[in-house]
Amino acid sequence: MSSSCRSALEARPGRGSRPQEAASRRRHSTALLGTVVAGFLPLLIGPGKAQADQFVFSPRVEVGATYNDNYLMSESTTPYVAGGVLVPGTPVLKVGGPLVDALAEFSDTTPTNNLSIMPRVHATFFPGHSDQQSTDGYLDFADTLQDGELTRWKLLASFADSTILASQFVAATFPNQELGQQTSVGSGFVTVLEREIKFHVGPRWSYQWTARRRLEASVDYDHASFSESQLGQVPFQNVIGQAGLAYDWTQRSTLTFGAMGGDYKPKTGTGNSYYGVSAQWDFRKSQIMQMYVRVGATHSILPSSGGLPSQSGTGFAGGIGAHWKYEITDITVDAIRSALPSSFGVLVFQDEARARLSRFITPYMSWFAAVRGIYVEESLPAVSNPAAGLEKIPDRTYATATAGLEWRFTRGFSLLASYNYQFQKFSGDPLNASSNEFGVSVVYEPRRDTLPRYIGTGVGDY
User: Fold this and answer.
1) Dihedral (C-alpha) 414, 441, 40, 197: value to the nearest 10 degrees?
2) For 150-187, what is each residue's pLDDT tens digit?
């Protein structure tokens, strides 16, 4: 984390006490139980019963080992001078050990409904550093309902209970994200391995107004909280509503004009209201290639508080990206700028550029590579930030890259090896942080016959 910000932190009590270790053991037992259930549930259900219930069960169980040479992304191991003040060094934490990742996807498709439920558990075990190991839980839900010939409803929901390392040092492969979709990455400040709990719910509605025109509307609600009170980890809630008109310009392209409004409320501080407009062009050349271009603007308002006058500002928001999906190759490139809520305690503008490629070498072997760069800045830089104890939050630069190889040696089992690099720097800080991570694992995924899907933290960040 930033040296200038680190000095503002108060010393935290030591971690790894007996109650915490006991809780850690309980969480790890839950992870192992989840792994066993995910691995053996197909046998318990039986193919006949699964077919009768119209549910398709798709498990994925990964068991392996990982090593990271700077787990908490510390900047310096020795004392250094910053602004004429001697700043104590931060020890670099090196960890390594087994990991377990268990996922179970349940899906059901009918002529009028598509349902997907996906629980997941990810656990690490670090001998000698039991206070740093963790068990993270995730649950994703999606349900699409065709209500008559003209109306469609969709409900998206997700829950995550994870370490801030998983939520703020995001994967290079941008898992579970579609073209143009962006996720707030937080402040990147790490002093202890605290936990973050996130909840999201997002209903969607569309109505086929005419043969070529469609009305669309959506609401998204996000809530984030943290297990400890740390600089840069401010609990918040955010709600945003959007509405627009989509026009099928041709059989392959669509123009969408929309407006949105949102309200961001941190637990401490003033918060922001914001609104904006956008225009987006979507083009699908074929089942192989699709792309989009989006342009728009967001206006942010900070009400007066603590003797400070109200502030407002306008910034560009948009993006451009494309996806090619061939039989043996999958390519995605995307660049986005958005106004997003953040654990900084203020609304931020986030710029992101990302690309990934996966390809079959043989019918049994594939490789993948991905890069991702993110720049975060305060949406209203002239405004002080009393919630974080700073006059201005430091701009954050984060970059990550990954590469790996998968060998599918049987129908249901594969061997996965990967390397991941991470880099972080804050403005005004002469230092930066970086880490190298290596992993190898065995993956059980009997229902997959395509290139790997990206599902999140794990060896290879699938």
Assistant:
1) -130
2) 999 999 999 999 988 888 898 999 888 889 998 888 88
26 in any annotated domain: yes
- 27 lies in which domain range? 3-444
What does the chain come to in residues? 462
pTM for the model: 0.82
The two tokens of residue 383 are 């405004």
Q: What's the CATH number where 109 sits?
A: 2.40.160
84 CB contacts (<8 Å, ≥6 apart)?
A: none
The Cα-based distances of 235 to 190, 213, 352, 407 in angstroms read: 15, 40, 23, 42
Q: Is residue 92 part of a domain?
A: yes
Asked if the structure places residue 456 within a domain, the reply is: no
* 3 state DSSP class of 49: helix
Burial class (CB in 10 A: 0-12, 13-18, 19+), 110: exposed
> How many independent structural domains does the chain possess?
1
Structure tokens at 239: 């709600």
Residue 43: both structure tokens together: 């046998």
3-state secondary structure of 36: helix
